[in-house]
Specification:
By secondary structure, the protein is an alpha+beta fold. The protein is built from nine helices and eleven strands. The strands form two sheets. An eight-stranded mixed beta sheet has the order 2-3-1-5-4-9-10-11, sandwiched between helices. Strands 6-7-8 form a three-stranded antiparallel beta sheet, covered by helices on one side.
């Protein structure tokens, strides 16, 4: 049961934010207060609903002891109904009060790479990327391919894209890991089922203010691009390689004909990788706390299997199996897996919080 003092303090904080918004003309304060207001609005509405229900509960309990038998009977009936709805209200507010990952609102850098399985792994990597493109479209997100290395038989050896929109990381973060496919490859003449894999990385794309990169920490090399790209290939130094000296992280971009555009893309990827490295360091320090949580994001763990002969998709972290592989790989039913992972993560964090006596 959430302490009433905590609910009252939350409502009081929200009221003070609203009062401050109406009394300030400072643009920076307005932006900051508006953001806090937006983050708290739904939570406070639920808190007020629960607080009102608790007040009503006390009043009904008093009325149920009334000497007026008709009044007491009506109160007992309403009391029974309220006692049934109160636990759900408590639970909903508890979920809303869970600490939020500050990166949840971020756009992401999505990286899909072929793993074990040769040509079939590359084809599968292409299938996964198209799945995410469709899922992004359904969510109103914008996908911009940053770099791609196509495979001879189709698909990608690796592909990197920026996915921009509202709360992209909140929904995409559980996709990070090893995805395994079991199917008969088009190149297989004897109809044997092969197992291949692809890795997916989902890096929150930070704002420039989130991570400071000093120019003195960078070594920038330019060179002539290789591969498809038109007349400018091998004639101008348009490709860019940026090395972050303190960490050794290297990013190469050569898809654009303009050196300036390649550098901008490379910096976007570099910023995301450094930001994720810092997140990983902090997460490692909290490993004991996070042990029971869904989806560590470790690329080495097999998170999902796509079995074509049985039209089955299984997410191994939550033991959920859907027999609608074609809908999932098309991106249309991916949200069923994503929503289930989000719900399990919330439940696990809530249980951990309650276990800590919070």
């Amino acid at each position: 049961m959430i302490p009433q003092e905590k609910i009252s303090a939350l409502i009081d904080k929200f009221d003070k934010i609203e009062a401050a918004m109406s009394s300030t003309a400072n643009a920076d304060d307005i932006v900051r207060l508006s953001k806090e207001h937006g983050e708290l609005k739904d939570v406070v509405e639920k808190a007020r609903e629960l607080s009102s229900a608790r007040t009503q509960l006390v009043e009904l309990e008093e009325l149920s002891e009334s000497d007026d038998s008709e009044m007491a009977a009506m109160a007992k009936e309403e009391l029974a109904t309220l006692n049934e709805t109160m636990p759900a209200l408590e639970h909903e507010l508890q979920l809303m009060l869970l600490p939020k990952d500050k990166a949840d609102d971020s756009s992401v850098i999505l990286e899909v790479r072929a793993g074990t399985g040769g040509d079939e792994a590359a084809i599968f990597a292409g299938d996964l990327f198209r799945m995410y493109q469709r899922y992004a479209s359904l969510n109103g997100w914008r996908v911009e391919i940053l770099s791609a290395s196509e495979a001879e038989m189709g698909g990608y050896k690796e592909i990197q894209a920026s996915v921009n929109g509202d709360s992209v990381f909140a929904k995409m973060k559980f996709e990070a890991g090893v995805h395994r496919v079991q199917r008969v490859p088009e190149t297989e003449t004897q109809g044997r089922v092969h197992t291949s894999a692809a890795t997916v990385a989902v890096l929150p794309e930070p704002e420039e203010v989130d991570i400071d990169i000093s120019e003195t920490d960078l070594r920038v090399d330019v060179f002539r691009a290789s591969g498809p790209g038109g007349q400018s290939v091998n004639t101008t130094d348009s490709a860019v390689r940026i090395t972050h000296i303190p960490t050794g992280v290297v990013v190469i971009q050569q898809d654009e004909k303009s050196q300036h555009k390649n550098r901008a893309k490379a910096m976007k990827v570099l910023r995301a990788r450094l930001y994720e490295a810092e997140r990983a360091r902090v997460d490692a320090e909290r490993a004991a706390e996070r042990k029971g949580m869904v989806g560590s994001g470790d690329r080495s763990e097999r998170i999902r299997t796509y079995n074509y002969p049985q039209s089955r998709v299984t997410d191994h972290r939550i033991n959920l199996t859907l027999y609608k592989l074609s809908d999932v790989i098309a991106g249309d039913s991916l949200d069923e897996l994503v929503d289930a992972l989000i719900s399990q993560d919330r439940a696990d964090r809530l249980a951990a919080m309650q276990g800590d006596g919070v």
